Amino acid sequence: MTQTSHDRLLIIDFGSQVTQLIARRLRELNVYCEIHPYQNVTMDFVRDFAPKAVIFSGGPDSVTREGSPRAPQEIFDYGVPILGICYGQQTMMTQLGGKVESGHGTSEFGRAFVTPQNKVDILDGWFTDGDEQVWMSHGDHVSEIAPGFEVYGTSPNAPFAITADPSRHFYAVQFHPEVHHTPNGAKLYENFVRIAGFTGDWTMGAYREQMIEAIRTQVGDKQVICGLSGGVDSSVAAILIHEAIGDQLTCVFVDHGLLRKNEAEEVVAMFRDNYNIQLIHADESDLFLGELDGQSDPETKRKIIGKLFIDVFQKHADSIDGAEFLAQGTLYPDVIESVSFSGGPSVTIKSHHNVGGLPEKMGLKLVEPLRELFKDEVRGLGRELGLPQSFIGRHPFPGPGLAIRCPGEITIEKLDILREADAIFIDQIRKHDLYDDIWQAFVAILPVRTVGVMGDSRTYDYACALRAVTSVDGMTADYYPFSHEFLGETATRIINEVKGINRCTYDITSKPPGTIEWE
Ligand code: XMP
After folding, report:
1. Rounded Cα–Cα distance for residues 251 and 317 (Å)
2. Active site residue 209
3. Is 181 a catalytic residue?
4. How far apart (Å, rounded) are the C-alpha atoms in residues 142 and 149?
5. Which of 56, 267, 272, 455 could bond 84 through an S-S bridge, CB–CB 3.0 to 4.6 Å?
6. For 277-296, what is the mean pLDDT?
7. Quick one: pLDDT band at residue 190, thresholds 50, 70, 90?
């Protein structure tokens, strides 16, 4: 897809766990940056990318090891400011003629305090109240700085915690300014991009305009199909593409009968009525629920749904004349090629539902207008496009829907009960103004009936579990610490208002060892 034009910063990734955070800090400063693994960064690549500045990330290797990663040597003659962080500092020093040592007394992990030595432009706004707290995570340290560099800050185990050659605008720090535990770290990035002459031209307003042009150029007069899930990413992608090409876009919304209460109606009303987007509402619930009938194994259920979803999507997409493109809400974190040091195959915990091989199977080209964006930026773009906040701030919802919140066999009766209970739980969370503090919340209906007493009668109904977690990316999560009052009030409402449930539990498992969904 045609690239958008802005000042560009290149982050060379040496494999740090927190490289993505560098990119986030820069994007927050309206600076466009990309992360590329060091193996791919040749001088031809650099010239082609044309960065206004370069950052070397941290990494797990030791520059004292033969064959350890390096930046291309000529990058130091390319004439743009460079900031080296942790491993990035060490390779910079080594490549420019300094020395790095490993061994006793060279490591430092966690919180440290840096004491100022001299003043330099990248430290504007630092040391105003004395030493600065920083976060260190290094086994080696620089023992001799490269010619032309001076020391601007020291910490107990890093005599060269901050070094710089201001005449060439080369800066190198031992700590990680991108993490939360370096409280004043954002200031360093702000100073660095100011020194490099960035104008802060990366805004969602500008992105919208440029992307509309790029989509028009890519698509021409051809037709585009977009699968809508009701989630933020596909919604923002669809609205942006619709702004660019109007009726050349058709959205397909597959209703597998596993959606939440009123969800299908809301999605259809939103796109058809508010945005006037051509939309196929494929109600295929009978097909999906029929195939799932009697199935209780989690992986079997997931596989059935995944396969049917692709078949159904393809059937409806085939009915659109002349479609040549498939739109997808792929985000930047999905396309970053990360530096892998472990390499080994990882275990499949759950087969995630996606439409992966579809474009090749159908001979379609991809339109991915969100490929350059982080999730926060997609939300910003959504706001820019006028999507209501209630839509933008929505919790994630999994592709297989309620099927994986209904452990064991799925029945229409159970799904109906689950929908009612889930709607009450979310209503309670909204009423107590907790929705935005929680990453994801839902109810699971358990495959067990329990005995209860209501009025003077015995009941024998389903038990349910409430699940609410905090998380950053869904990879790890912790349960949300509701008050006992909240839990009590919610359980009472669910048991009183939902026919078919007589017991309510709260799931306090973190991930790991649990997963967020029950299946
Ligand atoms: P787990 O249960 O693996 O879930 O801890 C992590 C996050 O992923 C969502 N999830 C899915 N999303 N297709 C999706 O689009 C799937 O098949 C799928 N399975 C789980 C889950 O809701 C949580 O946000």
Report:
1. 9
2. no
3. no
4. 12
5. 56
6. 97
7. very high
With helix as H, strand as E and coil as C, how does 375-426 read? HHHHHHHHHHCCCCHHHHCCCCCCCCHHHHHCCCCCCHHHHHHHHHHHHHHH
Per DSSP (E only), the strands in 14-72 are 32-37, 53-56
In the structure, which protein residues have their CB atom closer than 6 angstroms to any atom of ligand 1?
350, 352-353, 396, 398-400, 440, 474, 511, 515-517
Note the maximum CA span of the chain. Answer: 88
> Amino acid identity of 369?
P
For ligand 1, what atom is nearest to the CA of residue 395?
24
Closest CA to 139 of 197, 70, 59: 59
The whole-angstrom separation of Cα 28 and Cα 406 is: 40
Which is catalytic among the residues 86, 251, 464, 504?
86
* pLDDT recorded at residue 361: 78
3-state secondary structure (DSSP) of residue 187:
helix
Strands (E) in 260-322, as ranges, are 278-283
Q: Is the pLDDT of residue 4 over 90?
A: no
What is the length of the chain? 519
| d(C-alpha 162, C-alpha 113), whole Å | 12
Which tens digit of pLDDT belongs to each residue from 206-258? Answer: 999 999 999 999 999 999 999 998 899 999 999 999 999 999 999 999 999 99
Task: Characterise 200 by phi-psi region: left (phi > 0), alpha (psi -120 to 50), beta (else).
Answer: left
The Cα angle at residue 274 between residues 269 and 279, in degrees rounded to 5 = 60
If one residue of 301, 516, 518 were mutated to test the ligand 1 pocket, choosing by the most ligand atoms within 8 A of its CB, it would be 516
Catalytic residue among 6, 141, 169, 176: 176
Token pair recorded at residue 369: 């207008």
Of 271, 280, 298, 516, nearest to 391 by C-alpha is: 271
Q: Is 180 a catalytic residue?
A: no
| Token code pair at residue 429 | 């969370």
Cis peptide before 512 (omega within 30 of 0): yes
Buried b (16+ CB within 10 A) or exposed e, 307-337: ebbbebbbebbeeeeebebbbbbbbbeeebe
Q: How far is CA 218 from the centre of its chain?
A: 26
Contact 310, 349 (CB under 8 A): no
Scanning the structure block, which residue is given the tokens 């049917």? 308
The alpha-carbon radius of gyration of the chain (Å, integer) is 27
Taking the CA of residue 440 as reference, the ligand 1 atom at the shortest distance is 24
Percentages (nearest 5) of helix, strand, coil residues in the chain: 35, 25, 40
Rounded Cα–Cα distance for residues 303 and 300 (Å): 5
With tokens 């299908």, the residue in question is 264
Which stretch of DSSP H or E encloses residue 215?
Answer: helix 204-219
Of 348, 352, 507, which is best to mutate to test ligand 1, by the most ligand atoms within 8 angstroms of its C-beta?
Answer: 352
The whole-angstrom separation of Cα 416 and Cα 424 is: 13
- Give 343's pLDDT tier (boundaries 50, 70, 90): very low
Instruction: Decide if 327 contacts 249 (C-beta within 8 A).
Output: yes
C-alpha to C-alpha distance for 51 and 122, rounded to whole angstroms = 19
